[in-house]
Predict the structure of ABC-type polar-amino-acid transporter.
Amino acid sequence: MTEVSVAKEEVAATGDLVVLKSVNKHFGALHVLQDIDLTIARGEVVVVIGPSGSGKSTLCRTINRLETIDSGSITIDGKPLPHEGKELARLRADVGMVFQSFNLFAHKTVLENVTLGQVKVRKKDKKAAEERARALLDRVGVGAQAEKYPAQLSGGQQQRVAIARALAMEPKVMLFDEPTSALDPEMINEVLEVMQQLARDGMTMIVVTHEMGFARSAANRVVFMADGRVVEQASPDQFFSNPRSDRAKDFLSKIL
Ligand code: ADP
Ligand code: MG
């Protein structure tokens, strides 16, 4: 993989990057996020796991303001999340997000997918943006696909393009919401390897995944959610070998 500087400042700097304090969120009568307190340090890789419906996706979506919160606060790099306009577009660039479904622009080439946001939001000139896009596409192993359209790529390739597109914006933190769960099994590893490399390079990452191998090898911390609450947080070693809560024990007994 080609070396591209993505997260230098994240490696160099220290301190808390993403801070959630007493965050609450309802969908009608459903209290989907309940008093969430969560702090993610610069360069930290946090894996979020928990049963379906526990609020993991909603948690991710509040951090780049795809969902609003009812009470509490979320800050990134010490600043509260903006509400609208250009500030919001910049936030979405600062907080790269990779979803289960690949969400590429179907009518744009791979190269255009990775170039557009750089020009529109980061105000780069087209040539510099394309150069960075090609370097990132090489880095995630799809450089040869640059002129193709998403539908011509495999799911694993599309997901790697989605990662490159987020990285092109020079995000401060990357959110991954079950990035491999829609992939055919033989494509899961190629995506996890890109994420592993990103983690090693010092990117701050919040990763919702059921890939426990990834959690064990890449995560600094596991956050276990159930029923809209953070029930338990621990190092992967401690969490997998010695979960403290009954909810976590029960969950692990079903998936391991
Ligand atoms: P997870 O990602 O852990 O499976 P989600 O955050 O997707 O959980 O969902 C948590 C709960 O909130 C679920 O009960 C889900 O049905 C509900 N939910 C999610 N999004 C919405 C929405 N936009 N409107 C109403 N309910 C929602
Ligand atoms: Mg989810």
